[in-house]
Specification:
about 425 residues; single chain; alpha+beta; four-stranded mixed β-sheet
Length: about 425
């Protein structure tokens, strides 16, 4: 049965923003599409729920929230005299709605683990696939997404220092984690949006809200996205999947859903996705749209009983939340300390040297709230002139532009020593 347009003007009750109206028939049909519905099964914050019990929200509601904010931004810019046609308004809304459609399970964790490509590239491929299904009605949205459209500020509403993506995820993630430092003045920031020389800008009256936004972003990264226990859990999961792929490559029998099996058996690259490589009757992109958090969780539940000591130990620890100890420092751990730790792991768990490396992870994490090497945040002064926010602000924002780098080492808690 075909729904008429009036039946597609739904209202969604969002816990963060209240009632959200669906903009158009096209937006409704995209939300209803199985590729978009998959986002319900992809957690927005990956394994962060192991640290913040409320962080179970999905990329589905994030995408809806971002599209809601996009509608508000369009209304504000139109009131300030900037021409945005109905066609452009729908297209930029579609672009933000679909911006995360290519995310793998558990956010960024599985990029370059299960697939050798980025979610941005997969998102674009899926948008192009949907464009075929919708007879070219997404063409303008794709132009805006790729920054190929003549109005650059429309792309900036989707991807920039002050895009609708960031405005939503900071507020939403703060709400569900309970981390109050992420609360920002979204309404005021959107009301202060403007356009100068085809660039997105902020009216001077909104400068304090932008300062707060940048500070909140920095704090949310340290307190949530780069929380040390979350980092430990993520790298444990990465090593679980690396071990699983290694075992499968050596012919070891391993439980997996048919979808996960395809990604354990193969090392798919960007070229495979672009060329529609066919595997077991489906192309790689189709297999990807069937992969979600449930495939990984189901595998972990079974792998905790596997005969392989590394796979079972790591899977059991994630399943029962026995997360590794993580050591953060301004310098990498010494090679001597690393050798000592690996020897301890090898002896305690009766592992080979190669196996012991799966139980010891090290690397680095970085935080940069305002990247001045990409696009600047421009502020329109009362006299009509424009200054970059560091010049317009009366506080020192250098701490927000500085890239802070921390090194970590991660290992079983039973071996905790200095």
């Amino acid at each position: 049965m075909n729904l008429n347009q009036s039946n597609k003007k739904k209202i969604i009750n969002d816990p963060v923003f209240g009632f959200i109206n669906i903009q158009s028939e096209l937006v409704f049909d995209l939300i209803e599409h199985p590729v978009f519905q998959r986002l319900r099964r992809i957690k927005q914050l990956g394994l962060s729920y192991l640290v913040f019990p409320g962080a179970n929200h999905s990329r589905f509601e994030h995408a809806l929230g971002a599209s809601h904010l996009m509608r508000q931004a369009i209304s504000v810019l139109r009131l300030k005299g900037h021409e945005i046609t109905d066609k452009e308004a729908e297209a930029v809304t579609v672009a933000i709605l679909l911006h995360d459609i290519g995310h793998a399970p558990y956010s960024h964790v599985l990029e370059h683990t299960l697939v050798e490509t980025t979610h941005e590239e997969i998102s674009l491929l899926l948008m192009e696939k949907l464009n075929q299904h919708f007879n070219g009605r997404l063409s303008l949205a794709i132009e805006i997404f790729k920054n190929k459209y003549k109005k650059h500020f429309l792309h900036q509403l989707v991807a920039s220092q002050t895009d609708m993506d960031r405005l939503d995820y900071l507020s939403r993630d703060s709400f569900f984690t309970g981390v109050a430092e992420g609360v920002i003045g979204i309404d005021r920031i959107i009301k202060m949006l403007n356009v100068w020389n085809d660039e997105l800008a902020i009216d001077i009256k909104g400068i304090y809200s932008i300062e707060k936004f940048l500070i909140s972003r920095r704090l949310m990264y340290w307190q949530v996205y780069l929380h040390k226990t979350v980092v430990a859990a993520e790298f444990m999961l990465i090593n679980i999947l690396k071990r699983a792929k290694e075992l499968v490559s050596h012919g070891v029998e391993l439980f997996a859903t048919p979808t996960l099996r395809v990604f354990l058996d193969n090392n798919f690259t960007s070229e495979n996705f672009r060329n529609n490589l066919n595997v077991n009757g489906r192309n790689v992109l189709e297999w990807f749209t069937m992969l979600d958090d449930n495939d990984i969780l189901t595998a972990l539940k079974e792998w905790q009983f596997h005969s392989d000591p590394v796979l079972s130990y790591l899977s059991k620890n994630i399943t029962h939340r026995r997360l590794f100890k993580i050591k953060l420092d301004e310098k990498p751990v010494s090679s001597l300390w690393t050798k000592k730790m690996l020897k301890q792991i090898k002896n305690k768990y009766n592992l080979t040297e190669k196996e012991a490396n799966y139980l010891f992870m090290q690397g680095e994490i970085t935080n940069n709230a305002y990247n001045r090497n990409t696009e600047n945040i421009n502020v329109i002064l009362k006299n009509g002139t424009v200054k970059e926010i560091r010049e317009a602000s009366d506080i020192n924002l250098s701490v927000l532009t500085k890239t802070v780098r921390k090194y970590f080492a991660c290992y079983p808690k039973e071996l905790d020593f200095n």
